[in-house]
């Protein structure tokens, strides 16, 4: 049997949906490699350059956009975010699974890429809380943002949640363990898809 193609597990959801925790746990358990995004926002306390994000200034970000180094990029909450091609394409060609924590703008860009390898690899999932009340509770419970930032994130989250029908799969959040069990099960199922298996 040949090497199966890698899976590009594209995961979106509003702030507070738990998507980042799911992606990081998948990586920690060795199930997939995390695609570290670039951003122009300043690091939060405890964040490490190259692990949480590649922190770039706006000029460097724009230079990399102009050089065609990004698979996707977007402006979110007033800052630039993007995924470098180098974080994804080589790994997929080697049969390694890559998980991307990405906003709806970036996800739409990835879906529109006319590259057979990307389209074959793509599995997209939208993670969302059961309702707006739960979302607000999660955003407030973080304790890391001001009331104004929380209000902005809540407004943006509600807009984002309108995009769930654009995705192939949707996960409505319950408990952390239930969410992770379903999240991992989708990846495991996609690995068994016949079209991903190499010729014998």
TrEMBL record:
Binding site for ATP: 13-20
Coiled coil region boundaries: none
Enzymatic reactions: GMP + ATP = GDP + ADP
Gene Ontology terms, MF aspect: kinase activity
SMART domains with a match to the protein in the record: GuKc (SM00072)
Superkingdom of source: Bacteria
UniProt EC number: 2.7.4.8
Entry keywords, A to Z: ATP-binding, Cytoplasm, Kinase, Nucleotide-binding, Transferase
Record's function text: Essential for recycling GMP and indirectly, cGMP.
Protein name: Guanylate kinase
Taxonomic source organism: Haloferula helveola
Gene name in the database record: gmk
């Amino acid at each position: 049997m040949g090497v199966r193609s890698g899976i590009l597990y594209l995961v979106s959801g509003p702030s507070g949906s738990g998507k980042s925790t799911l992606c990081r746990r998948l990586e920690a358990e060795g199930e997939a490699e995390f695609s570290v995004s670039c951003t122009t926002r300043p690091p939060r306390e405890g964040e490490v350059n190259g692990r949480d994000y590649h922190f770039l200034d706006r000029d460097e970000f724009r230079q990399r956009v102009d050089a065609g180094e990004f698979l996707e990029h977007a402006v979110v909450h007033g800052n630039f975010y993007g995924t470098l091609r180098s974080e994804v394409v080589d790994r997929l060609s080697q049969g390694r699974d890559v998980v991307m924590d990405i906003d709806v703008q970036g996800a739409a860009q990835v879906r529109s890429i006319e590259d057979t390898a990307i389209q074959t690899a793509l599995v997209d999932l939208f993670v969302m809380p059961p309702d707006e009340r739960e979302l607000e509770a999660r955003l407030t419970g973080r304790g890391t943002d001001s009331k104004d930032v929380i209000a902005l994130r809540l407004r943006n989250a509600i807009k984002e949640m309108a995009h769930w029908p654009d995705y192939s799969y949707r996960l409505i959040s319950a408990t952390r363990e239930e969410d992770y069990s379903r999240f991992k099960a989708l990846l495991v199922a996609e690995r068994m898809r016949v079209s991903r298996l190499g010729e014998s």
